[in-house]
Amino acid sequence: MGQSTSPAPAPARELIEANHEFPGEYLIKAFGPATEGFRVAIDAAAREAVGARVELRERISSKGNSICITLTLRAETVDEVILAYARLHDVPGLKMIL
């Protein structure tokens, strides 16, 4: 069997809670193709978790074919962060989440 290249799920609940206070801001970086479809899917995934309480910033690679989208979630609970990771994990083309 081949190795899976899918991103890891959310960090452990205990790790998130130990390092963040809720409600509060939580940063996630999503890496994937620099396409409009990927941008829209990342935005929709984040909004499924926290509604309008998300801000997105983009940085495109020097070759223009990859993008890093930084999501600033204004999360009310750790459950919203875990849900955001789950929704982002399902976005087609996602290469990595930090």
TrEMBL record:
It holds the Pfam family DUF493. InterPro entries: UPF0250_YbeD-like (IPR007454), YbeD-like_sf (IPR027471). SUPFAM superfamilies: YbeD/HP0495-like. This is Uncharacterized protein. It comes from Enhygromyxa salina.
